[in-house]
Write a structure and sequence with these properties.
By secondary structure, this protein is α/β, with parallel strands linked by helices. Helix content is about 40%, strand content about 20%. Helix 2 (about 35-40) packs parallel to helix 3 (about 60-70) and helix 6 packs across helix 8 (about 190-205). The longest helix is centred in the last third of the chain and has 15 residues, at about 190-205.
């Protein structure tokens, strides 16, 4: 899943990006509201971590403009303002959740997971297809009782496929949601990672879970 971190304190932004990357998320960062709005409009983010106090354009205005443009991206607002009025204003502007600084990283992860589950339908925290089970909370994958060791990118690909199990996911869409803005759209890395995932699942007895739809992409069967 792909996240945009918008935070003018660059050390904090980089720390958040590093921490989220360790949990399998693909992360881009920016430090002002105007750039954040442009990035969020042109890239396929699943979530925006949006600081309230930003140069050039504040977080509330970024949030309002995204919602006015019809964006349904998850928005988790980060701010040092703890007052009830500020929280209400943020939520009324279209944010999905509101987290007050300072916060524990474990709580941030829990809020991120909760917002990513909100897309107009009820999602289980644990993703499952047949004998395959993926738990975003623990970053673990099992086939029956056998744990499957995946790299962060492999985990991200499998999570995205499972979250979209009812449809074919294209090569380009996987790059947009699992890689950051530096991804090479012409790379063969998706095929390499898919093959590696298949080999690991096959070794645990689940060889046919990811199907290739020729000319279109991949689907979890």
């Amino acid at each position: 899943m792909r996240i945009l971190v918008v935070e003018d304190e660059q050390a904090l932004a980089q720390a958040l990006a590093h921490g989220l990357s360790r949990y399998g998320y693909s992360v881009d960062t920016t430090y002002d509201g105007e750039t954040a709005l442009v990035m969020a409009e042109v890239n396929a983010y699943d979530l925006v971590l949006l600081d309230l106090n930003l140069p050039k354009m504040d977080g509330l205005e970024v949030c309002r403009r995204l919602r006015a443009a019809g964006s349904r991206v998850g928005i988790l607002m980060l701010t040092a303002r703890s007052g009830l009025e500020e929280r209400i204003t943020g939520l009324d502007s279209g944010a999905d959740d509101y987290l007050v600084k300072p916060f524990q990283f474990a709580e941030l992860l829990a809020r991120v997971r909760a917002v990513l589950r909100r897309d107009g339908e009820t999602r289980s925290a644990v993703l499952q297809s047949g004998s395959l089970m993926l738990d975003p909370n623990t970053i673990k994958v099992f086939v029956d009782s056998t744990e499957i060791p995946l790299t962060a990118k492999e985990f991200g690909i499998l999570e995205y496929l499972l979250r979209n199990a009812s449809r074919v996911v294209s090569h380009e869409e996987l790059l947009e949601h699992v890689w950051n803005e530096d991804a090479n759209m012409f790379t063969q890395t998706i095929k390499v990672h898919i093959n590696n995932i298949r080999k690991k699942l096959a070794a645990a007895g689940d060889a046919e879970r990811i199907a290739t739809v020729k000319g279109r992409g991949y689907i979890v069967s």
